């Protein structure tokens, strides 16, 4: 039997639906999703099988004009993911069309090695009418030579099968890169931290989600099959700590409950989750925080 395997980088503007597509392809939630931009911070790999092909999806942080050190490190991680992949899929949002951000990603694509296969996936087609899609497909293909264009809805599952089959055929001959039953290659402690960060992002407003990070400090397996997980939420200011805790600790309690429930389901056993909020004014400039997130601190150098 000839087997195939390779890496597929999903790139696009923040909020394009890259993580939603990763999860849809894998058939499980390996990457967190929110309605807010800049949810994904590092490269997250999700593994899917299609016939004799193993597809390793590399979900990347969104591409945008970076301002802070963290932004720069995220954008560098995204382009790094693209440069290393066998196939790149550029996701754009059907209802937003060719934004300034999309234009600048197209410019960036021209700097990649010429032989790279790049496909276009127009996502969120559930939000527009068909004629608009045809015009958008044409306009995008005039700007860049895409190997194929797919029209999909990552959320509703439209067009996903087609894309998966095409990707499976594009993969190079190779032994499988992961055991057949593995769906992600993120350490569990990191997945657990991401789940808590998702709940924080969903619940907190404005800039706050961008100014915090979550780390799993301790993971203790218990004899009864349950596990105790201790996490720290780093915030940059005293005021932020108050907001995360909420009136009488109600906010943190709700976040903790939501995260614990998802972790319990994900792991299939009881989880005891303990969250602690720490003020660390300078965490956005600390190398250790970046390595915990799976980012390269030096990529953030201006
Ligand atoms: N209507 C619609 N919404 C979608 C679709 N795919 C994703 N979304 C929504 O778009 C939002 C962003 O999705 P994500 O998957 O987090 O987007 P992302 O590209 O990973 O975003 P970043 O990690 O911030 O770069 C979420 O609210 C999703 O539910 C789709 O096909 N249709
Ligand atoms: Mg994402």
TrEMBL record:
Cellular component aspect of the GO annotation: cytosol; plasma membrane
Span list, region G5: 152-154
Cited Gene3D superfamilies: 3.30.300.20, P-loop containing nucleotide triphosphate hydrolases
Binding site for GTP: 12-19, 59-63, 123-126
Chain intervals for the UniProt region annotation (G1): 12-19
Stated role: An essential GTPase that binds both GDP and GTP, with rapid nucleotide exchange. Plays a role in 16S rRNA processing and 30S ribosomal subunit biogenesis and possibly also in cell cycle regulation and energy metabolism.
Assigned protein family: Belongs to the TRAFAC class TrmE-Era-EngA-EngB-Septin-like GTPase superfamily. Era GTPase family.
Protein name: GTPase Era
Annotated organism of origin: Mameliella alba
